[in-house]
Structure formats: C-alpha cells, structure tokens
Amino acid sequence: MKVLVYGYGLMGKKVAHAVMNDTDLELAGVVSPVFDVQPEVPAYKSLDEVQDDIDAIIDFSHPANLDSILSYALKNKCKVVFATTGFSAEDLKKIEEASHEIALFQSYNTSYGVAMMNKMVSEFAKEFFEHHFDIEIMEKHHNQKIDSPSGTAVMLYDGINNALDDSLEPTYDRHSIHRKRERNEVGISSIRGGTIFGEHTVMFAGQDEIVEVKHTALSKEVFANGAVAALKALMNKDKGLFDLKTLY
Fold first, then answer.
1. pLDDT at 156 over 90
2. Which residues belong to the active site?
C-alpha cells in the first residue's frame, strides 16, 4: 500500500518514520507547504504535484487542508486517516459525506490504549452513575497545546454521555459558578505545562471511594504508531467513517 503523509511537523516526521518501518506499507511521499528538513522520499508542496498512484493518506496537518485532501481522496479512491485536531462541525460533516464513497478514519487521538479506555469508561459509566458516583474528566498536555479541552477529553465525555442517553451536561469552568455540583454535571478540566505528551483521567467519585481510569502517553510515537495501525485496519474497508470506537 502506497502512503502519503500530509504534514511534516513533529508528528508528521514521526508518522513518516513509522510508515517506512512497516513492512506492509510504502512511504510514497510527504506533502507540506514548507520543509525544515528534506525527507528521504519525494516532497510535495501540494497534492496537485503528486503523480504517483496513491492508496492512502495519513493527515497530521491542519483543518485548512481538509477540502484538498477530500477532493484528492475521492478522485483517487484513497483511504484517509485524519489525525488532525480542530475540525469544525462543518468539517466533520464533509468527512461524513465523503465516507459514503471511501473509507475514512477520524479521531483526535490515535492511541490504541485510549480506544480501550474509551470502551471501558463508556461501558461502566451508567452503573457508576446509577450508584450515585460523580464523574469528572481531567486532561494534561504540554504548554504548547492550543486547544482546550483536548479532543480526547471531549471524546471520552461523548462516550460517557451516549451511554447515559445524552442526559449529562459538561462543565468546563466552575470559577463563575456559585452553587453545589449538579447531579448530571461532568466537569472537564485542562492542565497545560512542561512537555507532558498527554494524560487523560476519568474519575468516578462515590461515597468514601474513588475509582480512576487513566491513560498516559509516554512518547509521541504512540500516536504515530496508532495512526499506522488505524490505516492498516482500514485496508479491508471499502467505505465508511470509522473512529477509535468502531475500528477496533
């Protein structure tokens, strides 16, 4: 399978390396408007320059590139792994529409461990809630991360909320709220500091006891390897939109 990596920042470099080290994949090139270092494979400033036949794209770039990626993928029937953060509701709708014709994976976190964490907390959330446990979500990231809360924290909340029939309400800031915690409230807290790769904790707090489910990323390679694993899982999919909950 010939693969293009879109984006050649820190994560793009790691993804390109992961693709090159996978015996089932061939890194056909890298697409980026600028290159601080020259890759060992063909480098393109846009998809319009790509002449080779491409089977798949892994995107770790920017939401502004979505239209060109989808246009290219639909034209060439490519599979795409979208690991870019910051998509708008309109962007996500475009991805969903394209998935009627091609196989796409979209997630703000590509870690297999996060996929398993999401399954665990979604499965047990209802029982905890019915036994009067409060639910809180905490995430920590490096001091260069722009968005807050993280897409992964939102994904964990969505999974828990779906398990409880959309009866919950997220609370992102209690500074201006002068009242006790509501029964259906889920606090989502963000911490930014240092070089934290990523840490997510879901806490179930009951009467005199606390249960926590936590995932800690010890390097960025976990996300690069996860993106490659997601792409390989797409190999036998003709079309459809997949995420961490539905692909594995």
1. yes
2. 141, 145
What is the value of pTM for the model shown? 0.80
Q: From the annotation, which residues make up the binding site for (S)-2,3,4,5-tetrahydrodipicolinate?
A: 142, 151-152
Helix pair 66-76, 89-98: axis angle to 10 deg:
0
128 lies in the same domain as 66: no
Residue 29: closest CA among 51, 9, 11: 51
Residue span of the structural domain in which 196 resides: 112-216
Same domain membership, residue 70 and residue 34? yes
Q: Where does the pLDDT of residue 58 fall: very low under 50, low under 70, confident under 90, or very high at 90 and above?
A: very high
| pLDDT the model gives residue 195 | 93
Domain count, the chain: 2
Question: Distance (Å, rounded) from C-alpha 11 to C-alpha 4?
Answer: 14
Backbone angles phi, psi at 106, to 5 degrees: -135, 125
What residue numbers does the annotated binding site cover?
Answer: 36, 83-85, 107-110, 142, 151-152
- pLDDT tens digit sequence for 37-46: 889 899 999 9
